[in-house]
Amino acid sequence: MTTVLIFDTETTGHAEPVLIEAAGLFIQDVRTLSVLGNFEQRYNPGKPIETGAMATHHILDEDLVECPPADTFRLPEGVDYLVGHKIDYDWEVIGKPGVKRICTLAMARKVWPDADSFSQSALMYRLAKDRNRVRDALKEAHSALADVKFCRFILKKILDEKPMDSWDALWTFSEACRIPDVMPFGKHKGVAIKELPRDYVGWALKNLTDMDPYLRKAMECA
Question: What digits encode the pLDDT tens for the residues 73-94?
Fold first, then answer.
């Protein structure tokens, strides 16, 4: 039986982020996204929270004094897929466990390419019928548990547009959506990858050893 976890973290900030809060919704049926259970837990990171991060999630250092250490977090056993908005960030924060990842951010960019923003909050306003309810709900945004609930809503809207009959089919679609169409940086930024000069593609594949694996796949295909 496949176990799926819609997952989110809050962290100390951009510089070597450490976990301070984790939350998840357990989902089983890709057709209904019915919730089987949830969890939320805060952790002591052992380092100060950056004020920029604090301004986003409003978690203070003193809130975490009695919490378990961040390095005690363990992903629940039996999870086959992690789902999240820019899930790679959360996956890296918890130590890159060996599970498949499904990225709602990547899929949203493909499903609604004309959107002016792909943040969870912006997508909520775009996709919900009642914007007043969205505004009220977003007052709780950036707590991890609130964010996984928003992510589930966005995932449901993606599946309304692109119905899937299995989690593996959704993962395959997510993987395809991650592969970029245009060059994201450098002197060829904004150029369609299939139109990049062949000598540049060869140089990049040889020399940019830390290249994003999905960008590398796109360039290899080009």
Answer: 999 999 999 999 999 999 999 9
Strands 81-84 and 35-42: unpaired
Distance CA 2, CA 28 (A): 6
Residue spans of the domains in the chain: they are 4-178, 180-222
Identity at 58, one-letter amino acid code: H
Q: In sequence order, which residues have a C-beta less than 8 Å from that of residue 120 and are 6 or more positions away?
A: 85, 141, 147, 150, 151, 154
Q: Where are the alpha helices (DSSP H) in the chain?
A: 51-57, 87-93, 104-111, 120-127, 131-137, 144-161, 167-178, 198-207, 213-221
> For residues 152 and 7, what is the distance between their CA atoms, to the nearest angstrom?
10
Q: Could you tell me which of 101, 93, 104 has the C-alpha nearest to residue 150?
A: 104
Per-residue tokens: 12: 């100390």
Antiparallel, parallel or unpaired: β 35-42 and 19-27: antiparallel
Out of 21-35, 105-119, 140-154, 207-221, least confident range: 140-154
Q: Which two tokens stand for residue 105?
A: 């951010």
- Residues 123-159 have pLDDT tens digits of 999 999 999 999 988 876 668 999 999 999 999 999 9
According to CATH, the topology of domain 4-178 is: Nucleotidyltransferase; domain 5 (3.30.420)
pTM passes above 0.85 = yes
